[in-house]
From TrEMBL:
The keyword Transmembrane helix does not apply. This is AP-1 complex subunit mu-2. PROSITE patterns: CLAT_ADAPTOR_M_1, CLAT_ADAPTOR_M_2, MHD. The gene is AP1M2. GO terms for cellular component: clathrin adaptor complex; clathrin-coated vesicle membrane; Golgi apparatus. PANTHER family: AP COMPLEX SUBUNIT MU.
Amino acid sequence: MTYMMLLRGSISDNPLISRNYKGDVSMSEIDYFMPLLMQKEEESALTPLLSRGKVHFLWIKHSNIYLVALTMKNANASLVYSFLYKVVEVFSEYFKELEEESIRDNFVIVYELLDELMDFGFPQTTDSKILQEYITQQGNKLDTGKSRVPPTVTNAVSWRSEGIKYKKNEVFIDVIESVNLLVNANGSVLLSEIVGSIKLKVFLSGMPELRLGLNDRVLFEITGRGKNKSVELEDVKFHQCVRLSRFDNDRTISFIPPDGDFELMSYRLNTQVKPLIWIESVIEKFSHSRVEIMVKGGKEYLMRAHFGLPSVENEELEGRPPISVRFEIPYFTVSGIQVRYMKIIEKSGYQALPWVRYITQSGDYQLRTH
């Protein structure tokens, strides 16, 4: 990538901030991005990559800001987009909300971060916890007499600092599953899937190695266990700390964790899910007078709404949007995934307590009505 730009969302706005990493793309090229984007949007031909001559614009939108990367080469598009989303993640860690106001209030830190995130078009340190060790929110107070590069940048474990100490060593594990479901008016499930993630909150001293055991179906097959209580994980994605080679060999999830909060892994299960919460609705129209709506959820809740109308002339059938449901169920996972063990190994030999919590929540959960 040669050039990166953060813009506001209006066609007439000038760029908020920019960084030219190689100098082979003219700074004026960004002026063509918003008119080109608006043109493609009007033509219903908008794509994540827009081109003008030899210049390519790779862009994403977050809140009211466009993040745009410019290049004149046949760049690795997936790498560029991964970097742009990582920029959003890092800036959000620093400023809580990434929007125009937070960028304007933190120009100095933004430029420092852009310089550290990428060098001459190549991504460098993109872990916000490491960046926060030497780019603080009081950027003008940095000690320039010392090297600004912390040991973690050059260590094999770049996501964790050495010398971390806690009086009480604990690990909190959250297994969170979101249910995406679409049910038609006749009660048939049209679409269902489970999207899960395992998030950790780590308060451990030193440089511990953690090993997480799940009721993974592939692991159970390797070790000769039964399949009754196992789960077949799909589309598994790990944090960079996980030793992928070991997982490929024997399905062991082994890692030295970052300090604090992070997502260890995510997964998907494309399985048939029975509706966890069922909603029935009945809509009755009384000509020229009123509309009554009854919504029934399972056996516990019933809601009736009565709307008095001055006049109801149109008796034609109208489109009825599906009912969207929001819920959260603690101590339960739809897939049946379980944390079988968490081993914590550290050379000092201290004892640590792992805590596990299971949560099922609604994702895109919709039930169509008659």
